[in-house]
Amino acid sequence: MQGLWKIVGSPRYILIFEAAARHGSFTRAASELNVQQPAVSAAIKQLEQALGAPLFLRSHKKVELTPVGAAYYAEVSKALHQILEATRTVQSEARSAIVTLCASTAFNTYWMMPRLRTLRDLHPEIDLRLQSSDREPDIDDEGISLAVRRGNGDWPGCHAFLIAPEVIYPIASPGLMAQTAVRRREDILAATLIHLEEPVRERPGWKDWFAAQNCTVTIPPSGLRLNDYALVLNAAISGEGFAFGWNHLAADLVANNLLAARREWSWHTGMGFYLVWSKARTLSENAERVRDWLISAAGSGQTAG
Q: Distance of CA 212 to CAs 167, 218, 244, 265, 267, Å?
């Protein structure tokens, strides 16, 4: 395309001409291209001088294509449309190689990260991008391939697969658990309680857990209150108090002796954590591979490491 560059000076002039011809207005072309109207006028003038022919008839209130301009616009618009389609094809193929998984910070940190090596060994060609969110984004509006949500498995417009049932039990650092004389559920109240208070998503709290255990207690107003479950787990590991242990996230930490748990006091809430994906959009082949791997890892009870 060296010859084109020599003739017109800059391909930018052709893009500006196409917009001006399509709108029949230098002003509307300037608005579309986010430039000033004099810049459009100057670019068209440069292109006319380079071509040696007038492209527009200018009057006080409007501009019209000359016969030469109309013929040139027909060819230019066709060529630019082909370039646009080729660009979209490349962009679509590039995006299909990318797989996004949107989940809480805690899920990405304590469930996904320890297992990523296995996925990468199986599918090194997949560009998996983990997104952490403190809300439940619209996967169609935001173009998200896969997401993990807490609920009952029923979301309009989404397929859902149960990753893990919601099972909650008290956890603390091994040192704090050994130091605290916890023989009854109520004895937990003698220690500091770590509360999860997310700003958007609804999550059960200590009051709900005690009620499910048929314990009538008054929750102390004091305690440590955090807005992200990853922070809750870090605080519990550090010995700051007793926290909720969501089994699918805490089990590996307990197995590695980073946390101790009272699993005999488990609460099965009836809710679960689900992998979801859109019914409106077909998953790419790479997204299907990640989905199938997640389902397999969840179904086999695959542990980290």
A: 12, 14, 14, 10, 7
Contacts of 136 (CB under 8 A, 6+ apart): 147, 149, 200, 201
**Residue labelled with tokens 């009952």:** 152
H/E stretch holding 94: helix 67-97
Total count of residues recorded for the chain = 305
Spatial distance between the Cα atoms of 125 and 122, rounded to a whole number of angstroms: 9
Could you read off the pLDDT of 200-211 as tens digits, one per residue?
888 999 999 999
Return the sign of the alpha-carbon dihedral for residues 215, 218, 224, 229: positive
Please provide the DSSP assignment of 197-258 as one string. --SSS----HHHHHHHTT------S-SEEES-HHHHHHHHHTTS-BEEEEHHHHHHHHHTTS
Q: pLDDT by residue (tens digit) across 268-299?
A: 999 999 999 999 988 989 999 999 999 999 87
CA distances from 78 to 1, 8, 86, 190, 191 (A): 17, 18, 13, 76, 73
Contacts (Cβ under 8 Å, ≥6 apart) of 122? 293
Most confident of 2-6, 95-99, 192-196: 192-196
Token digits for 289?
A: 């591979």
- Residue 301 has a CB neighbour count (10 Å cut-off) of 9
Non-local (6+) Cβ contacts of 12 within 8 A are 43
For residue 34, the 8-state DSSP code is T
